[in-house]
Amino acid sequence: MDLTVTFPGNQQVRAEYNGFIINTDQPEEDGGDGSAPSPFDLFLASIATCSATYLLRFCQSRDIATDDIRFIQKMESNEETGKLEKIRIIVDLPGDFPEKYKKAAVNSMELCTVKKNLIDPPEFEFKIG
Question: Which end of the chain is more exposed for a tag (fewer CB within 10 A), N or C?
């Protein structure tokens, strides 16, 4: 499983993976053009969208409408280190969401692969050539 990265200009970084192109950039205040999300923004979005994917599948398998479901992800960071300390995902469900499925819906989001890889992270190795 390979992902290829190139540098199209200024602070932009482009990843090519599995037939997709993922563009990133830095905000203007950090020397970028602000033309795309930063890598950290994509990291945060991957957590919410992964959790949402599991909830979506859960709902679809039970014929539960998803049109009015909304995710809000809140992050708490350490002011000294700038590192994340807590990620909270709040899911607004419509009033007609079946009560009997609420706990199971949360359990489905816990299956998020991104979250699992944060809890038990892979080993990192950086090499030149």
Answer: C
Place of tokens 């205040």: 29
Q: Where are the alpha helices (DSSP H) in the chain?
A: 39-61, 102-109, 113-119
**CA dist., res. 65 & res. 58, Å (int):** 11
CA gap 56, 49 in Å, rounded: 10
pTM for this model (two decimals): 0.88
Q: List strand residue ranges (DSSP E) for 3-94, in order.
A: 4-9, 12-17, 20-24, 70-77, 84-92
Give the tokens for residue 5: 């990265």
Give the pLDDT confidence of 53-83 residue by residue, as tens digits: 999 999 999 999 999 999 999 999 999 999 9
Residue 70 corresponds to which tokens in the numbers above? 């909304």
User: What CATH number belongs to 38-122?
Assistant: 3.30.300.20
